[in-house]
Amino acid sequence: MSSLTMTYTQRNLAENIRTPTMFLTVTLVPVGVMVFFVVPFIGQDAAAITSATATLVVFGVLMACVGHFSVAIAAQRESAWGRYLRTLPGGIAPQMLGYLLVGLVVVAAAIIPILLVAGLFTAASAPPPRVMLAAGALLIAVVTFTLLGMSMGYLMSMRVAAIANTIGFLPLAVAGGMFFDEADTPEIIEQIAPFVPTRGATDLVLVALTGKSVGPLSLVMLAVWIVVLAGLTVWGHRRDQVRRFD
DSSP secondary-structure letter at 185? Predict the structure, then answer.
């Protein structure tokens, strides 16, 4: 199993390196927002920049997970090579573990530049125990957005997944209130944000990192979204298996 997993991981990583558009996108967009729209205005306000950094890290995870898993899985489903891989005796487990490991590489590419900018050029700070808690909370965000990307990959065609990946993360970020200051958030966003997974993931990381109190609704809905997205992913995979191979 471990040998097969590493083989799939190396192959998927090589494919992403040969076409680095996604790596560049998930790396440059969040850190670009950080450098041009956050640091010049609140870079020396320790509390504000720490919260903004956490929010942009969650945004980077959203872009990385949805971008990687939705397109990669949809492309494999529609390719002859992907259909052949589904018939191999190793089964689907090492293939999915390979996707997950490459997804973690993409996530690292998205969040490390943000953390470097925050650490080197801003007043952002947090005690080590809080940082460790935030890292654990971020793993839950990774799971949530990974399931979102995988469900999109199994339920959408390659063309639709590519379009959804290009524009889909932005409405989720806006609806979750990621681009608004707490005092200036429009009322309609305040009403819908607790029901969007991006808000729950952001609130969870902020609670862990800063101890900031948040409403419980967004965290409850995050758990609901994880269950729903996991169900959609399993159902999509089984539906695809039946349509193509049974």
Answer: -
CA 85, chain centre distance (Å): 26
Residues 12, 246, 157, CA angle at the centre, nearest 5°? 45
Q: What is the pLDDT of residues 124-148, one digit of tens each?
A: 988 999 999 999 999 999 999 999 9
DSSP label at 168?
Answer: S
Helix (H/G/I), strand (E/B), else coil: 122: coil
Question: Is residue 213 packed enough to be buried (19+ CB in 10 Å), middle (13-18) or exposed (0-12)?
Answer: exposed
Q: How far is CA 218 from CA 158, 197, 203, 213, in A?
A: 31, 8, 7, 12
| Residue type for position 189 | I
List all residues 6 or more positions away from 205 whose beta carbon is below 8 Å from its beta carbon: 54, 55, 57, 58, 134, 137, 138, 141
Q: Distance between CA 115 and CA 136 in Å, rounded?
A: 16
Q: What is the pTM of this model?
A: 0.90
Lookup: tokens for 222:
């995050």
